[in-house]
């Protein structure tokens, strides 16, 4: 049942909850669902954890088929977190294995500006406990042709000279997605912490602008057919230094144990293939045209070894090549004279086919077709 906007308590919707541990209130994600009355599927953004008074039933429920490719997660908190433990700023050079540096808790914009000055004056302006972008490499750090010794400032990347870092990114491991035994790689540059927003959906953005929120973007999608969770590093805390937790309902009035986010869970959809050349049981199929299947995720380059074709009975048919394009399309092309005329063939995509995470196709796909004269 839809709850009309007029019944929403916008007083509470604009308030955060700084008392107690910081809580995950909702998580937005994309799910794949079957269109009623058909075998077709589509996708939609839903509340996979938590609820919202303005959302209808189909927009808020546990997700059992999270979309594998092109998904992202908006993790909406009930209060502000310490951003220093979530994002780091860009430096002018590699400082510790990459060109990003964490910002000390308590650092001010002036501290950042003092580490964004010209290279020749940096040693006199960028120093002390609040200094950032300090070289941590034993062999030193190079900025252009200048070598910076370990312990000295490399400088904040500030090409527009406004005294602030030109770029930030999420700290690796600060917030993560784990599916089964797999730590899903996160695109740190596309992911971010947004400390603004509340529970009142704005006209522009709607539910996707609720906040404060962490946005997580998987780098290469999700592994298929696995139970997944969202987890926070021990370092991610609120201003009272309390770790994140998730009440079962997402209701900030409910209790949860700091550090426990086990309730934030979902399942990824299974890998599937769709035949785009013809439907099951089709007849009059060309003897020389390729047979094409499209997966709903990126597949392992060795997937072609799981493709078999049999002719009448169980007679193997081997006069074909199988190739993968765009990471998810399998094209089976007959060679030589092609398929025999007026003959039924069976194409099997075996469960030995895996996605790029090494997760297998849960159920073999079998398609029959009969060639023309």
Tell me about this structure.
The structure is a single chain. This protein has 373 residues and is mostly beta strands. It folds into 3 domains: 156 residues, no CATH class; 73 residues, no CATH class; 99 residues, Immunoglobulin-like (Sandwich), CATH 2.60.40. The protein is built from 3 helices and 22 strands. The relative contact order is 0.15.
Characterize this entry briefly.
With 373 residues, this protein is mainly beta. It has helices spanning 10-13, 109-114, 122-125; strands at 24-34, 41-49, 73-77, 87-90, 100-102, 141-143, 146-148, 168-170, 175-179, 182-183, 192-194, 213-216, 227-232, 265-267, 273-275, 282-285, 291-295, 307-310, 320-325, 329-334, 344-349, 365-371. 4% of the residues lie in helices and 28% in strands.
What is the H/E string?
HEEEEEHHEEEEEEEEEEEEEEEEE
Largest sheet: 5 strands, antiparallel
Radius of gyration of CA atoms, rounded to a whole number: 27 Å
From the spread of the alpha carbons, the general shape counts as globular
Average of per-residue pLDDT values: 94
Query: Total number of β-strand segments?
Result: 22
Based on the model shown, name its key terms.
373 residues, mainly beta, Immunoglobulin-like, 3 domains, five-stranded antiparallel sheet, four-stranded antiparallel sheet, 3 helices
């Amino acid at each position: 049942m839809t709850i009309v906007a007029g019944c929403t308590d916008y007083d509470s919707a604009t308030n955060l909850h700084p008392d107690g541990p910081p809580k995950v209130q909702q998580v937005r994600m994309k799910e794949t669902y079957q269109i009623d009355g058909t075998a077709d599927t589509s996708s939609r953004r839903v509340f996979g954890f938590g609820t919202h008074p303005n959302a209808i039933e189909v927009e808020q429920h546990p997700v059992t088929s999270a979309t594998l490719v092109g998904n992202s997660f908006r993790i909406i908190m009930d209060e502000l977190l310490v951003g220093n433990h979530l994002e780091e700023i860009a430096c002018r050079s590699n400082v510790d294995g990459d060109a990003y540096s964490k910002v000390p808790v308590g650092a001010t914009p002036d501290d950042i500006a003092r580490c964004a000055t010209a290279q020749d004056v940096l040693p006199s302006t960028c120093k002390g406990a609040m200094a950032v972008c300090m070289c941590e490499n034993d062999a030193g750090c190079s900025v252009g042709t200048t070598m910076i010794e370990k312990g000295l400032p490399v400088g904040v990347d500030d090409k527009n000279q406004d005294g602030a870092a030109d770029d930030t990114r999420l700290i690796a491991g600060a917030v993560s997605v784990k599916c089964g035994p797999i730590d899903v790689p996160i695109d740190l540059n596309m992911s971010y912490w947004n400390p603004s927003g509340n529970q009142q959906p704005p006209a522009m953005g709607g539910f996707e602008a609720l906040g404060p929120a962490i946005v997580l973007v998987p780098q290469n999608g999700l592994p298929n057919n696995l139970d997944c969770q969202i987890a926070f590093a021990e370092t991610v805390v609120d201003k009272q230094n309390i770790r994140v937790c998730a009440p079962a309902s997402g209701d900030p009035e409910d209790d949860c144990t700091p550090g426990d986010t086990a309730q934030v869970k979902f399942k990824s959809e299974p890998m599937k293939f769709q035949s785009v050349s013809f439907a099951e049981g089709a007849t009059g199929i060309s003897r020389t045209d390729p047979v094409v299947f499209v997966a709903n995720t990126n597949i392992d380059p060795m997937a072609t070894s799981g493709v078999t074709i049999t002719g009448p009975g169980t007679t193997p048919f081997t006069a074909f090549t199988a190739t993968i394009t765009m990471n998810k399309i399998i094209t089976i092309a007959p060679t030589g004279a092609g398929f025999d005329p007026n003959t039924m063939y069976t194409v099997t995509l075996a469960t030995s086919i895996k996605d790029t995470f090494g997760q297998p196709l849960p159920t073999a796909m079998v398609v029959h077709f009969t060639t023309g004269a």
